[in-house]
């Protein structure tokens, strides 16, 4: 009995020793694998698998590396072939979340936690990687959110990647197209973001143009805040209305407060009421004056005067029919 127990402990001790040795070597192999992925050296990665064996290679690929996974590294390397190899041959989880560094347009880097490989590929704008991830089973993570609440579709909209937006909507089941997707597309005034917003509205993937956020802000109000006249025109074409937020603030008040002359003029043409007051009794003239936008205050007062004396012009329907205007 004692001999059998001794043998059992010997086996256990041997297994523990082997496991400890593997753990000690793990950082070395992690660093090597990361280097090979950065070099896009698929041949050497295959050789590493032959050296380690399928089981240990699977453990290596599945181990966390700098708060993310090797699938994230494959995506960041831009290699769809390496990505497919890790998933198909090394059984890597294509939906596993991690923390990644994302470069900002204005400079600098921000860490985004709980990002899926699909989210990273969408943020990068690499349509081939997006397709590869979806075909490898990553579509199951389509509605997963990062720590800041962003989905893969939302970040594609925010980044202005219309081809990716179309692919995700047409090829992933149950993808959520919501207020935040259209808001993300309207957050920037350039043509590529406009095309994303236009696609979402035109194809009726999102038609709640008067939906409000928790503060009562509509998409029209957000466009007014950013001076996005092309966005205003697009939303109005699809039925957006000048709805006040929870504090009674209307889109024209928002545009006036932020000094967007062209947006104010456009909203006046549309018919947003210059005499409307918020819950504190303030109108658009007040908000323009308070923030030093005297030109806008004069425009608003002139419009009020002309309306009072019946000198208003009939607004031309053409201002809502034109497409993207590079001057706005």
Order of helices and strands: HHHHHEEHHHHHHHHHHHH
CATH C-level name of the domain at 209-328:
Mainly Alpha
Rg on CA atoms, Å: 28 Å
Oligomeric state of the chains? single chain
Supply the CATH superfamily name of the domain at 209-328: Ankyrin repeat-containing domain
**Mean of pLDDT:** 89
What is the CATH-assigned architecture of the domain at 209-328? Alpha Horseshoe
- As residue ranges, the low-confidence spans are none
CATH topology of the domain at 209-328: Serine Threonine Protein Phosphatase 5, Tetratricopeptide repeat
Largest beta sheet: strand ordering? 1-2
Question: How would a crystallographer describe the biggest sheet?
Answer: 2 strands, antiparallel
Protein name: Protein fem-1 homolog CG6966
Organism: Lingula anatina (Brachiopod)
ANK repeats: 148-180, 247-279
Keywords: ANK repeat, Repeat
């Amino acid at each position: 009995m004692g001999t059998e127990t001794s043998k059992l402990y010997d086996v256990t001790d041997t297994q523990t020793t082997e496991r400890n040795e593997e753990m000690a070597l793990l950082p070395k192999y992690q660093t090597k694998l990361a280097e090979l992925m950065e070099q896009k050296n698929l041949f050497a990665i295959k050789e590493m698998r032959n050296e380690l064996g399928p089981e240990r290679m699977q453990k290596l690929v599945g181990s966390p590396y700098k708060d993310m996974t090797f699938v994230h590294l494959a995506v960041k390397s831009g290699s769809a072939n390496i990505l497919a190899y890790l998933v198909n041959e090394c059984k890597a989880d294509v939906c596993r979340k991690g923390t990644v560094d994302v470069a900002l347009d204005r400079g600098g880097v921000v860490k985004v936690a709980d990002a899926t490989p699909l989210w990273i590929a969408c943020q990068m704008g690499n349509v081939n990687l997006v397709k590869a991830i979806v075909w490898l089973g990553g579509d199951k993570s389509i509605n997963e959110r990062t720590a800041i609440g962003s989905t893969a579709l939302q970040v594609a909209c925010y980044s202005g990647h219309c081809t990716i937006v179309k692919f995700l909507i047409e090829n992933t089941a149950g993808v959520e197209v919501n207020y935040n997707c259209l808001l993300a597309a309207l957050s920037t005034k350039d043509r590529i973001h406009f095309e994303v917003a236009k696609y979402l509205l035109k194809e009726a993937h999102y038609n709640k143009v008067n939906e409000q956020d928790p503060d009562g802000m509509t998409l029209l109000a957000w466009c007014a805040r950013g001076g996005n006249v092309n966005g205003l025109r697009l939303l109005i074409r699809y039925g957006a209305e000048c709805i006040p937020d929870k504090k009674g603030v209307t889109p024209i008040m928002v545009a006036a407060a932020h000094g967007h002359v062209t947006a104010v003029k456009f909203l006046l043409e549309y018919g947003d009421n210059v005499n409307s007051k918020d819950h504190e009794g303030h109108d658009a003239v007040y908000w323009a004056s308070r923030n030093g936008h005297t030109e806008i205050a004069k425009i608003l007062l002139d419009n009020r005067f002309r309306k009072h004396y019946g000198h208003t012009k009939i607004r031309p329907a053409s201002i809502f029919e034109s497409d993207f205007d590079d001057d706005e």
